[in-house]
Amino acid sequence: MEYLNPNGKPLATPSQSICLSCVCEFESPLSREIPDSQDMITPPEPTSNTPHRIPDIMKKTWEKPSRSGARTRWSPDNEHYENIDLVGEVYYKREDKARKTPYGDVLHGKSTPVSDISQPTLNCFGVTSKKGANPTVTTTLDEAIIEWIIDTQQPFDIVDNEKWKWMWKIALNKPCPINSHQTLHRRIEKEFSKCQFLMYKELNASAETVSFSLDVWKAPNRKYILAVICHWTTEDFEDRQLVIHSGHFKGTHTGENMAKEIQEILQNFGLEQKRLAICGDNASNNPTLCRSLHRFLKQKFVDSVDKLDIPGNEKKLMLFKGDGSFIHCLAHVLNLVAKSMLKVLKAGSHRETKRVIEQMSADRRETFRIDETPQSAIARLRLIVLWILASEQRIDKYMEHAPVSLDYDVDTRWNALLKMLKIAIRERSAINRMCMECNPLRPLTLSETEWMFLGETFQVMLSLYEKTLLVSQTSSTIFQSTEIYWGLDDHFDEVIEMQGDWALVDPQIKEAVEAGRKTLEEYTRKMDVETIIPYAAAVLDPRVKTYLLKTHLGGGAFGVLDNLRTHFNEISPAETSLPPDLPNPIPSTSTSTSF
């Protein structure tokens, strides 16, 4: 449906009664008086009077999505992870297990995305898809009951419920096969142990090196939960990942305590020597975790090839290097970059805005106080949107002027803010109409210049938004993460240097991009001084090798390549040549690390 200008649309009469407080909020355009200038808050205009390029978001026509067909989205939260078109800049590996030849060059032509890869998870029947095990003819009734209880997250004492027992007695003419929560607990523990053993065998057979991604969070019952995902690549170049631990983390979640827990997990699965890297967020306890774990592992292994030649040494070489093996979570870095940009733009927060609206309602006021009215365009737009969405009557009034409902942002997902901007900018005529007809919104009215400012802000942050969605939709490899870092770096350079479409960028937006660039550099610099794993992943990729490093780093690439040669020789030293007088010398089978 093509977007219609609300000015040309007749006002609709609500079919339901409106309470007295809402009558005070809404006024007829014909009976409304122009407010005095002292009642209006004049927001500051953007800092530049230079004419701006009209952002692309301001030119597009809104098309309301079709509501026909089966419902596929079961939660509004999924709206923030909408699918976007993948471009040729970021490579997504094809699922081609039959071929063992190198894939096409990432730098030439477009790549094909992997669609809906099911991440293996742990349940009572072993490693299956994230939707649980599919029923089979060999599944027993006991196993089906256990699977249902786990899949639907039922409490164990459900099998003690009298109605439950009565239901099974009617169905089978005998008691339920699992007749107590103690029996259920023992059966689940047994199946869990069986599943762990299956994972142990798979890791032992197909994983030469592994990496962990982990996180700790507090559950509603105020207990800490530690989850660990193991990642590796098989000899057939198949990416694999398993949830090998998810449970209650006892004690304070300091880096040293976490290191002890991770070491125990490594021992249980025989992965101490295979451990290559850890990926986590930027919390201060994660680097401490890496240093502590490295110290623990050094008691059983050596971390350098030179130490293998020490007389009397019986320890084997480990791959984990402490701080040098820590990979910063890309999604968390992108979030920090966005937050630093929004801070310069004085975007405020959802929590602050909600508190203002609740205080206004508690005081039974019809207008916002001057000290409650934000000055920035983003914060005022958020206040307008949340005020409209706080009442069903206001939503109905807004929908008289717009075909698409507004969406509010959440503080824990910055990309939700950009989606709010996207819908609000396209429905700005309806929002302006609401500001004219509703007393509380009159002081918040956005000028056309401010709408242009919001549109330009959206276009600048769109690249960051798209890359956040890419990371959320798929598990990006280290090499893909490096491409995302450099792609953002190039985008920020264009805005800061005012090149191309950004020749007339607003100075405040430029300042925000500079703040985001500073945060981004803080983490891209770590690839040069802390860990070279991202660079190593690029060089070892047969489609890329050294081309990408030389293209982006220029003359600095040669120093990085020298460090990579040293690194590869340490983790995979060349075999010592045999004495010439040895009969029938065995040829070396070691793979050359030269490039």
Explained architecture:
There is one protein chain. With 595 residues, the protein is an alpha/beta fold. Among the domains are: 141-189, no CATH class; 207-328, Nucleotidyltransferase, domain 5, CATH 3.30.420; 333-530, no CATH class. The protein contains 20 helices and nine strands. It has helices spanning 20-25, 56-59, 141-151, 162-172, 181-206, 255-269, 285-297, 330-344, 350-362, 377-389, 392-399, 414-426, 428-437, 448-473, 478-496, 507-524, 526-529, 533-540, 547-553, 557-571; strands at 121-123, 126-128, 210-218, 224-233, 239-248, 275-280, 301-302, 316-317, 326-328. The strands form three sheets. A five-stranded mixed sheet has the order 5-4-3-6-9. It has a two-stranded antiparallel sheet with strand order 1-2. A two-stranded parallel ribbon has the order 7-8. Strand 1 and strand 2 (126-128) form a beta hairpin. Helix 8 (330-344) runs antiparallel to helix 14 (448-473), helix 15 (478-496) runs antiparallel to helix 16 and helix 15 packs across helix 18. The chain is flat. The relative contact order is 0.11. Residues 34-54, 573-595 are annotated as: Disordered. It is found in: Nucleus. Its main location: nucleus.
